[in-house]
Write a structure and sequence with these properties.
Elements lengths: L1 H4 L13 H15 L13 H24 L3 H20 L3 H14 L5 H13 L10
């Protein structure tokens, strides 16, 4: 129905409006049914780590997507190296391992044509052993 209505001349893009009531419902349900955490040992979200991870992934993916079209200018390589350095910082502090494994699994599936099961099993040895590079933040 949303694609046929052609709201605001957006054609098929109007289907993304379905997400608005779903997100609103999830937010209301979360506020209503998820209890407040009173654990004094609970850690706060790692906002700088999340920002660094997101910026690093963009700095890696954007040059790979647009580099060929733009003729591989120098800034593409600088951005790519900066993104890899950002991921290195994430790995050093173990805050970005989830993001790394997500990107790694997606690369294995999309780039290397692994099945989801094979991609998951490929990462198992790294997940199941202790991290020798983990830096304690005491």
């Amino acid at each position: 129905m949303l694609t046929e209505a052609n709201l605001f001349g957006w054609s098929w893009r109007a289907v993304f409006f379905v997400n608005i009531p779903v997100a609103a419902g999830a937010l209301i349900a979360g506020l209503r049914f998820v209890p407040e955490t009173k654990d004094t040992g609970a850690r706060r979200p790692d906002v700088p780590g999340a920002v660094l991870l997101a910026a690093s992934l963009v700095a890696i993916v954007y040059p790979l997507l647009e580099g060929r079209t733009l003729g591989w200018p120098a800034w593409v390589w600088v951005l790519l190296v900066a993104g890899l350095a950002g991921l290195g910082v994430q790995v050093a502090f173990s805050a970005g391992m989830q993001g790394f494994f997500l990107a790694f699994a997606l690369w294995l599936q999309a780039g290397e044509h692994f099945s989801p099961l094979k991609a998951g099993l490929t990462a198992d040895p790294a997940v199941l052993r202790p991290n020798p590079w983990k830096v304690s933040r005491s």
